[in-house]
Amino acid sequence: MNTIQKKVCLLGDFAVGKTSLVRRFVEGRFDDRYLSTIGVKISRKTITRAEYILNLLVWDLGRGG
Fold first, then answer.
1. Rounded-to-integer distance, Cα 60 and Cα 37, Å
2. Minimum mean pLDDT among 1-5, 14-18, 24-28, 35-39: which range?
3. 63 DSSP assignment
4. How far, in Å, CA of 31 to CA of 2, rounded?
5. N or C: which end of the chain has fewer CB within 10 A?
6. Left, alpha or beta for 12 (phi > 0: left; psi -120 to 50: alpha)?
7. Could you give the CA distance from residue 25 to residue 12 in angstroms, rounded to a whole number?
8. pLDDT of 23-33, one tens digit each?
9. What is the arithmetic mean of pLDDT over 13-32?
10. pTM more than 0.70
């Protein structure tokens, strides 16, 4: 089985929902309590398919205004 590794980078204005999207995708949960990301938060998500394994590193980059 092939293993594919990719990096995904989310960036944009603060308070638009980047961290919420990452948390929902990686952890499968939503939390409406908002804390601004300071710097970067890196998460890992592994997706297994019949033909391959996909390892994602998801970078959530905080950007102040």
1. 8
2. 35-39
3. -
4. 34
5. C
6. left
7. 18
8. 999 999 988 77
9. 88
10. yes
Domain count along the chain: 1
Provide the domain limits for residue 25. 2-61
CA atoms of 49 and 36, how far apart (whole Å): 34
Residue with tokens 């989310």: 10
Six-digit token string for 31: 């939390």
Give the DSSP H/E element, type plus range, for residue 21. Answer: helix 18-27
Contact assessment for residue 60 and residue 45, using Cβ atoms and an 8 Å cutoff = no
CA-based torsion, 21, 25, 30, 64: positive or negative: negative
